[in-house]
Amino acid sequence: MTSGASSPLLDAFDGQDEIFSAAFSILQEAIARHAFPAASVAITHSGRLIALKSLGHFTYEPNSPQVHPSTLFDLASLTKVVATTPMAMILYQRGLLDLDAPVAAIVPEFISDSAKDPRRHNITLRQLLTHSSGLPAYEKLYLKARTRDELLHAAFTTPLTADPATRAEYSDIGFIILGIALERLADEPLDHFCQREIFAPLAMTNTTFNPPAELRPQIPPTADERPRSKQETCGADTSVRETPEAPPSSAAGQQPRSTFRQKIIQGEVQDENASILGGVAPHAGLFSTTPDLAKFAHTLLTGGHPILRPETISLFTRRESAPSTTSRALGWDTPSTPSQSGKYFSPHSYGHLGYTGTSLWIDPTRQLSIALLTNRTWPDCSNHAIKQIRPKFHDAIIEALDKS
Strands, DSSP E only, in 57-115? Predict the structure, then answer.
């Protein structure tokens, strides 16, 4: 990665429809097959924004609004790497975050019942970032917690399902606890810190938690939670790789399609736990556009200025050596086999997925980033076709670049 000041991201997407016709056709066919109603794409390459494309409508209804590059999407778990992880990176740079500090030193509530499980004393912030803390993938905390404080208490006291540092299991619970630790280290709420330290410096003007009420009709809906007889099943936002062979690890405990809020979810966070947390959560809740994600990715590809240092980016995006089978970096994921990034992203790549059908993959070797935003959870989360579509889409982009 280069160091020094970041150069501006230059627009150069005049010929995108011809160059990326095969890739865009994959998305158009997916929309026609109802894999998702809407898709928005931004591709950066060698310091240029070479594609900015939006396809489809908010829903499958023919009179539904069209999607545009300025359309906000619910990022779901991309929140982890566009807000929470960069916050950790900035605090680390300032000497405020020790990756190997015990969680309990900052969040003593995490060991309030440690007499039942002394292993909790040894869990570190690094293990929360790398999903190796031993915490479970997902819990429907919202079913028993009706307030933010109740949900946080439930997260703090969630039992471990493995010894710390012995396995990597993608955990929303771990990131909820991580976010509280970061807020205490910064002495500031997550959304306030991220707005001032990340989004404003990078001119990510359309990136926000809790979009204002007047903007909600301009955001594609992500779920229809109105009660009805049809009972689809939904899984948790795990695993981040969402491999086609298997549903999320919590799928065995799937419940009928969520009717938790008994309304259409539009312009507010789809994740129910994040909803109870007030829409500002470390694991979900951020809304953004593909142009803003392109700015964010470009910053990481060009050394991090003005928010990050090159060495911080290198540290946080490098795959961890333990546990032995992990594909995790600090906050980020890296390509595995099979990977939702496809077959061409280099071993130095890093990325993340979001449950609503969002993804961001960055390859410093190719100087390439691909942001894909969809609302594949509309009207319910039963359609997982994006797991096959996403890697094909990524492959088609890189094949087009290699030809051009």
Answer: 73-74
| Helix (H) / strand (E) containing 381 | none
Q: Which residues of the chain have pLDDT under 50?
A: 1-4, 229-233, 238-255
Q: Distance of alpha carbon 345 from its chain centroid, rounded? A: 18
H-helix segments, 78-166: 79, 85-93, 103-106, 125-129, 148-156
| Cross-strand partners of 363 | 368
Q: Where are the beta strands (DSSP E) in 233-346?
A: 233-234, 255-256, 264-265, 286-288
Query: What is the β-pairing status of strands 73-74 and 48-56?
Result: unpaired
Q: In this structure, are strands 10-11 and 48-56 parallel, antiparallel, or unpaired?
A: parallel
CA 36 to chain centre: 18
Q: Based on the number of CB atoms within 10 Å of its own CB, is 5 exposed (0-12), middle (13-18) or buried (19 or more)?
A: exposed
How far apart, in Å, are the Cα atoms of 396 and each of 91, 347, 370?
38, 19, 12
User: Are 2 and 303 in contact, with CB atoms under 8 Å apart?
Assistant: yes
Report the candidate in 235, 228, 238, 232 with the shortest Cα–Cα distance to residue 256. 232
d(CA 247, CA 104): 33
In degrees, rounded to 5, the angle at the alpha carbon of residue 35 between the alpha carbons of residues 31 and 41 is 60
Q: How far is CA 274 from CA 123, 143, 178, in A?
A: 23, 12, 14
- On whether the CB atoms of residues 359 and 353 are closer than 8 A, the answer is yes
Residue from 179, 368, 198 nearest 296 by CA: 198
**Which residue in the block uniquely carries the two structure tokens 């997407």?**
13
Distance CA 171, CA 137 (A): 4
What span, in angstroms and rounded, lies between the C-alpha atoms of 323 and 126?
A: 12
Q: Phi then psi for 288, rounded to 5 degrees?
A: -160, 180
Q: Calculate the dihedral angle through the C-alpha atoms of 106, 328, 282, 43, rounding to the nearest 10 degrees.
A: 140
pLDDT digit string (tens) for 176-192? 999 999 999 999 999 99
* Contact of 384 with 354, CB cutoff 8 Å: no
- Residues 379-402 pLDDT 10s: 999 999 999 999 999 999 999 999
